[in-house]
From TrEMBL:
Topology class, membrane: Multi-pass membrane protein
Record organism: Methylobacterium aquaticum
InterPro entries in alphabetical order: MFS (IPR011701), MFS_dom (IPR020846), MFS_trans_sf (IPR036259)
The name this protein goes by in its record: Major facilitator transporter
Chain spans, region Disordered: 1-20
UniProtKB keywords: Membrane, Transmembrane, Transmembrane helix, Transport
Major site of localization recorded for this protein: membrane
Subcellular location(s) per record: Membrane
A biological process term (GO) from this entry: xenobiotic detoxification by transmembrane export across the plasma membrane
Coiled coil: none
Membrane-traversing stretches: 26-48, 68-84, 96-115, 121-142, 154-178, 184-204, 234-254, 266-288, 300-322, 328-345, 357-384, 390-411
Amino acid sequence: MASSASGEAKPAETTRTDSGSAGPGFAEFVALMALMMGLTAVTIDSFLPAFPAIRHDFAVQDPNRLQLLVYVYMLGFGAAQLIYGPISDGTGRRPALIAGIGIYLAGSVLAMLAPSFEVLLLARAIQGIGGAAGRVLAVAIVRDRHEGRDMARVMSFCMMVFLIVPILAPSLGAAVLLVAGWRMIFGMMLALALLTLAWFGTRLPETLHPAFRRPVSARAIGAGIAVTVRTRTALGYATALGLTTGCIMAYVGSAQPVFDTGLYHLGPLFPVAFALIAGAMGVATLINARLVRRLGMRRLAHAGTIGLFLAACLQLALVLAFAGTPPLWLLIATLAACQFLMSFAMPNFNALAMEPLAAIAGTASSFIGFYTTLLAAFCGLLVGQSFDGTVIPLALGYCALSGLALATVLWTEHGRLFGSGLR
């Protein structure tokens, strides 16, 4: 079924709206999908420099508690993904995304007005529930329009633009913090969500093939999830994606205490260190996008995973050699190397997981997003909350999670890596 479905589901590169106006071409389509996904990166990263101000305003005693502002968002983000895909499979992608952005806007307003740390945590959870729509539906829309290596190429370009956001987001947050206070960082998020809503609403027609509409019912959702879980490729690569994303969440949760308040005390230079590491991901994702049509998703994903595990082991050895506090340049170099190699795996993991599930793309994207996000948030929280004034917990986390991801890929491929063929 999946095979025939993918043949039917692949629309033309340029579609038309009901009014007859041309839909987006390739570059605009990639940019819009990247913005939908990038809103999450802005929501996570832009307010990291505001942690000290938020701690001061709300008299938060334990600095590690501020990490909850990241992980509460991710938990809401992960749980809500289970909803948007099945709804979009029945009603279409457009109504589901518009509803999600509306929820995100409400969370952003509440965050701007939050009178206490607890209300701010609630606002972050609401933002996560709304922001999940962009992540789920961007992947589903890409799958609606593309398959195989073309899908991986689009996902790589989306990830490249998406990964530029973390380079800029902390600096943008720091600039807003300098002139207007931390609450206006959430105002910036509000403005970006409105831009996304306007762009999507006016430029992108419905992408769900009429033949693939499914009833919105518990039975249909359960059947779609069951197909996803029973598909070894989907489950295996989704698990590997969750584990590697867990490395990123561990880094994001640990970055502010490591680089600023707890260890290296970079102060206003914190966004610079953050950008250097995130920039490695952007470069790698661009290279991946150029190579994937020639080499295939599996070769790049497998090479990236092996490289990530080896780099993580080297990083751990170096961190231990310096008793948990390596020179700043060395830490930035090893983290950048890990993020660089990781970026050959993640977009291809996502595409490989979705490849056999064309007929249930919305539900599959929803479940895979739910599963990978909660797995990543749990792993990131576990590592982040272990911060002890050294980089050892972060280095251990990278080593363990990348090793588990490699083992999962081996299980998925029955022990055979670098498979040949079109995929």
